[in-house]
Amino acid sequence: MSDLPPPTAPEAAVSHVLAPTAWRCADFVSDLHLQQDDATWRAFARYLEQTPADAVFLLGDIFEVWVGDDITGAAGHDFERDVARTLRAASERRALYFMHGNRDFLVGAAFCAEAGMTLLHDPCVLEWPLAAGSSERILLSHGDALCIDDVQYMKFRAQVRQPAWQQALLQQPLEQRLALARQLRAQSESRKNELGVEGYADVDAPLACRWLQERGCHTLVHGHTHKPAEHVLDGTQTPALRRLVLSDWEAARLPARGDVLRWCPESAQPWERLQMAAPNA
Ligand SMILES: [Mn+2]
To answer: Which residues are in the CB-under-5-Å shell of ion ligand 1?
Structure first.
């Protein structure tokens, strides 16, 4: 078992990104839930090839499930290898950043290195120098850590984010980890059916405001809830505290879902929401 990658040490993740002054645009994407070569994967691969952004921030649940970085060397897992290769090719043209979601929290340093991505801590501040010496500070998160009303999930999260728990899991044979993942997914599916989309806890607004204020930010970008929107969290502040919520991706649905949030501070409309998963996008 000595050839297994070590679980991601928290110190390996970056909690502050300073954008180089040469950058013009950054894209934010989350909740692709990739699991096989399908329309969503093809739409995302095409997007990666075509985006003009200087940096792409993948904000969690890029994979439907991840049971360990050794998957890309395992027989029968060509898809994960393809994803790694495609990401690496994209990383040679622009900076790629990856943050864990609640499904792919086991993505480790080895996969990030293979795919050419920098691992981000959740949350992470993106500091973007503007003209006249000022800068924009954008707070990035997957979003699950802010859904504190879901007490059952928060307990699960606290457990599975422990390095010791992850280490023990990663020492199990791959087949056993895949079986456990199937079991967890079945449980989560049955819970989803019980609660319905609206039954899920949403981001806790006071906590989100605190996160923003503690880090000198006024815009939070997150995914996880699959409720794409723009919310004012506190309009009494100047500028107002707000959160921009990403969509999940489902290219085979009608209408297709697959938002990219694009930040181009020099443009007249600095924030733009693009639909990338439509067949003719
Ligand atoms: Mn999620």
So the answer is: 61, 101-102, 224
CA 150 to ligand 1 centroid distance, Å: 13
* CA–CA distance, 156 with 149 (Å, rounded to integer): 13
Domain boundaries, the chain: 10-275
Helix (H, G, I), strand (E, B) or coil at 166: helix
* C-alpha distance from residue 204 to each of 98, 143, 191, 216, 219 (Å): 23, 10, 21, 19, 15
CA 225 – ligand 1 centroid, Å: 7
Pairing of strands 117-129, 135-141: antiparallel
Q: Is 82 annotated as a binding residue?
A: no
Q: Return per-residue pLDDT of the chain as tens, 281 residues.
A: 444 444 445 458 999 999 999 999 999 999 999 999 999 999 999 999 999 999 999 999 999 999 999 999 999 999 999 999 999 999 999 999 999 999 999 999 999 999 999 999 999 999 999 988 899 999 999 999 999 999 999 999 999 999 999 999 999 999 999 999 999 888 888 877 777 766 778 999 999 999 999 999 999 999 999 999 999 999 999 999 999 999 999 999 989 999 999 999 999 999 999 998 876 54
| Centre of ligand 1 from the C-alpha of residue 67, in Å | 16
Is CATH 3.60.21.10 correct for 10-275? Answer: yes
